[in-house]
Design a protein that fits this description.
This protein is α+β, with helices and mostly antiparallel strands. It is built from nine helices and seven strands.
């Protein structure tokens, strides 16, 4: 019986201690405390939910300020340091909130700039108290001691370097999305880029251009009177160039690299007709000083056919390669 009573009292004592801990955390000991700022931020966000227009933005703005102030106050009461530095974990949390507040938006709360500036802002928040002495009611600016200056400079500089590397990652990621043809190149001589996945053997966008251009050219040439085809081939540079620009704008419109592709034809005589080479030329950066281009060849030959009146005429027959060929170096000169 005594053991049962002890267990019951132990449970009540645990519950009482848990309640006291929660009450201490949630109930501010005085009006001027970190809990007050947190409650003000929650109250501001609730009000902003029901507000409209610029009033909504103003209330939300103060909600962010209260949240940042309350979080900074709470996390600096008993600071836990980031291993190997004198930066409090609270400064990292506060720096994140400041970065989200400064560079986030309603559509994307966390943006690339939020992540990029986070380390630097956290370092500056850590350094600011080193230039202030005194308490909350009597504070004044001061110059840190020489040994403190050194560690402040090292911390801020290291954080700025980390921000630069994070920004470099986002730049490279953006390049890979806007200029996917760069992935077909080699980075063996690069000192800061290492390929972690299988290399793309042929640039996809260059292939797309030729695959979309080929049926348009075939449609304009196939079963066309031979005399008109020869006139078409004499003006092939302008015709294919115009068609190529339309294809690029339609199929590569979402990529910034669209301006780095140029479409040109090459026409050569054969014993029985002509060879029309459709070239998709990359004029962007390349590890090969002479660049590269893709080629799809079409053979054009005259064949006999009958018109609507039953008379025999000579028309063009065209057959193109199934696959595009990647050729390193400059394209051949136009004849």
């Amino acid at each position: 019986m005594n053991t049962l009573l002890k267990d019951v009292f132990g449970v009540f004592k645990f519950a009482e201690g848990l309640y006291a801990g929660i009450r201490k955390l949630l109930v501010p000991p005085k009006a001027y405390s970190w809990q007050t700022f947190i409650y003000l931020s929650v109250f501001s966000w609730v009000l902003s939910y029901f507000a409209t227009g610029y009033i909504k933005d103003i209330i939300a703005f103060f909600g962010w300020l209260f949240l940042i102030a309350g979080t900074a106050w709470y996390t600096t009461q008993d600071p836990l340091r980031v291993p190997g530095t004198f930066m409090p974990v609270g400064a990292v949390i506060t720096g994140f909130l400041v970065s989200v507040f400064a560079f986030g938006n309603q559509q994307d709360v966390i943006t690339p700039r939020t992540i990029v500036f986070w380390p630097t802002i956290s370092a500056l928040i850590t350094a600011i108290p080193e230039f202030i002495e005194g308490n909350d009611t009597d504070a004044k600016a001061r110059i840190p001691k020489p040994e403190d200056r050194q560690r402040i400079i090292i911390l801020v500089a290291s954080s700025m370097l980390l921000s630069c590397w994070i920004q470099f990652y986002f730049v490279m990621d953006n390049w890979s999305q806007q200029y996917p043809s760069l992935q077909a190149d080699t980075f063996k001589r690069s000192t800061f880029v290492a390929r972690t996945e299988e290399q793309v053997k042929i640039p996809k966008n260059g292939v797309v251009i030729l695959e979309k251009l080929q049926p348009i050219v075939v449609e304009q040439i196939a079963e066309t009177p031979w005399s008109e085809v020869e006139k078409w081939l004499l003006d092939a540079k302008q015709r294919v160039g115009n068609l190529g620009r339309e294809v690029i704008e339609k199929n590569l419109g979402k990529y910034e690299e669209k301006v780095l592709w140029r479409i040109e034809p090459r026409v050569a005589n054969t014993k029985s007709g002509y060879i029309l080479d459709l070239l998709s030329i990359w004029i962007g950066p390349s590890s090969n000083p002479r660049g590269y281009y893709l080629k799809k060849s079409c053979r054009i030959e005259p064949v006999a056919a009958a018109n609507n009146s039953g008379n025999k005429i000579t028309v063009a027959e065209i057959e193109c390669d199934r696959a595009s060929k990647l050729i390193p170096g400059s394209p051949p000169p136009q004849q």
